[in-house]
Design a protein that fits this description.
By secondary structure, the chain is of the alpha/beta class. It contains nine helices and 17 strands. The strands form two sheets. Strands 3, 4, 5, 6, 11, 12, 13, 14 and 15 form a nine-stranded mixed beta sheet that branches. Strands 1, 2, 7, 8, 9, 10, 16 and 17 form an eight-stranded mixed beta sheet that branches. Helix 1 packs parallel to helix 5. InterPro entries: FAD-dep_OxRdtase (IPR006076), FAD/NAD-bd_sf (IPR036188). It holds the Pfam family DAO. This is FAD-binding oxidoreductase. It comes from Arachnia rubra.
Length: 371
């Protein structure tokens, strides 16, 4: 049997794309090298329409249109997160995002970024120093908070319930592109397992960068982010973004506070962790804390790294942000749109035979009596 789609990686991006495609009636399988939930349950669990620094950088590097598209994808991601949470009775908390990621910015700089974000359809306002805990101007918008592990579990359960087949603890060893389809060979991660299994699909969604296209789209080496959870300190009500270093994000997490440092190379992460701890002691008076770190995908100034081939059997990939809640969800939604041929992705999609079969399957499901 030739599947419609094989997704490589049970990341947030991969599971989101698989869930949307399987819901539309397409046959989907997900191959993941890690135990269940490991690939998706990462990140800080904050989702928002945009970060001011990212939008400003994108507009400067790629133009206003790219910044607007970035915001639109994030808004679609936010709606997807809300839908997953509602269907899974998962608790979401909505708070304000106080964005000072531009640093000490002039009013005209803030207004320029505010207009860019609003141009993508999001609601954002100026944050005056009087209303900010940082005593400097910034931007204010809404953010969603969720536990990354809980979200990963809910997302995977919903993806499986759509009929998508999810295989964990397997490693893709070969991808061979044929005429109208692609063979994906994989092996189970067991010491005694040597036999290869093969799946054939009309399209491959690669969120781990193991396909020929994915290797190119991977951009660079992973980046490291020191983290610190504080207890016994005043917990803010809002999420705050700073320009860093040593601190990039401050968020409430239950009765604790999570601090994230700035992205850095592996060789720099130890010094960055010390600087973060010193800042926490000075700023919060923190004496009870737990250190940690995130390993995240490389960044390209927020530019969506998505590639697709217009012929069946093509590769579709997201080169960064694949596991993190916001970027991963926005990526997964866009990858599904590519395969469905909807919105801005028209003209690059699954074959019509797959679409007709999926449509017939949806029709039969609607007509089938419940129970």
């Amino acid at each position: 049997m030739v599947l419609d789609v094989v997704v490589i990686g049970a990341s947030v991006a991969g599971l989101t794309a698989a869930r949307r495609l399987a819901t539309e009636g397409f046959s989907v399988a997900v191959l993941d090298p890690n135990p269940e939930l490991v690939t998706a349950a990462i990140g800080h669990g904050v989702a928002a329409c945009a970060h001011a620094s990212t939008v400003a950088t994108m507009a400067g590097a790629y133009g206003d249109g790219a910044a607007h598209e970035h915001v639109r994808r994030n808004l679609a991601g936010l709606e997807e997160i809300r839908g997953v949470a509602a269907a899974g009775a998962l608790e979401l908390t909505e708070v304000e995002l106080h964005d000072h990621s531009l640093g000490v910015a002039l009013d005209r700089e803030l207004r320029r970024v505010q207009q860019l974000i609003a141009g993508g359809g999001a609601e954002v306002s100026l944050l005056t120093p009087e209303l900010s805990s940082r005593a400097c101007a910034g931007l204010r918008s809404a953010a969603l908070l969720v536990d990354p592990g809980d979200y990963a579990q809910t997302l995977e359960a919903q993806t499986a319930s759509t009929g998508a087949r999810i295989l964990h603890d397997v490693t893709v060893t070969r991808i061979r592109r044929g005429d109208g389809a692609t063979e994906v060979a994989f092996r189970w991660n067991l010491a005694w397992s040597r036999d290869l299994e093969v799946m054939t699909a009309h399209a491959v969604v690669d969120t781990l960068g193991v396909s020929p296209w994915g290797a190119v789209a991977g951009i660079g080496q992973p980046q490291y982010v020191p983290a610190l959870r504080l207890r016994g300190v005043a917990v803010p009500r809002e999420v705050t973004l700073l320009a860093g270093p040593p601190v990039w994000l401050i968020r409430p997490i239950g009765g604790e506070v999570l601090l994230l440092g700035s992205k850095c190379a592996r060789i720099q992460v130890q010094d960055a962790a010390v600087a973060l701890s010193n800042w926490a002691a000075t700023e919060f008076g923190a004496t009870d804390s737990t250190p940690g770190q995130l390993i995240i995908d490389p960044s390209d100034h927020g530019r969506p790294v998505v590639g697709a081939s217009a012929i069946p059997g093509g590769f579709y990939t997201r080169g960064n942000g694949r596991g993190e809640l916001m970027n991963g969800t926005a990526s997964g939604c866009y990858l599904a749109a590519l395969l469905l041929g909807t919105g801005a992705a028209r003209g690059v999609s699954l074959p019509w035979a797959s679409k007709l079969r999926a449509g017939a399957g949806r029709l039969l499901k609607r007509r089938r009596p419940a129970g």
